[in-house]
Amino acid sequence: MIDSYRLQVRFSDCDMMQHVNNAVYLNYFEEARIHYFRHLLGADWDWKKNGILLRKNELEYLRPVFLHDPVEIELFLRHLGDKSFSLSYEVRVLGELRTIGSSVLVCYDSVNKCSITIPPRMRESLGRLKLMLEQ
Questions:
Q1: I need a surface site. Which of 40, 90, 119, 134 has the fewest CB within 10 A?
Q2: Which CATH number characterizes residue 65's domain?
Q3: 131 occurs within a structural domain
Q4: Model confidence pLDDT, tens digit, residues 101-132
């Protein structure tokens, strides 16, 4: 099992209302994906030949996150298709759910500039993530 991604909220992440700005969560989700993919695929993965493109993001803000909050993000597999997959995110502070989100990602070969089927090693690795059932 992969530990959830822990992050330190930066001062620049916060807005005038002193909580994390809504746009910053997309960066947090990207950081969480990098954390999980590093554990799933390792540092030797060829992201140019077997990469991913972000197709869609959705977020729902439940409660604000503040500067000194200890933030953890857990990532789940929501759907696994032929060329694309969906991930879900849960942002928690001390176990309390603050934000949920999801992303649709498409496998992409940036060398040949075309979508590709999910590579076998990536498909197998994604299968190790916790499954998120439709809510």
A1: 134
A2: 3.10.129.10
A3: no
A4: 999 999 999 999 999 999 999 999 999 898 86
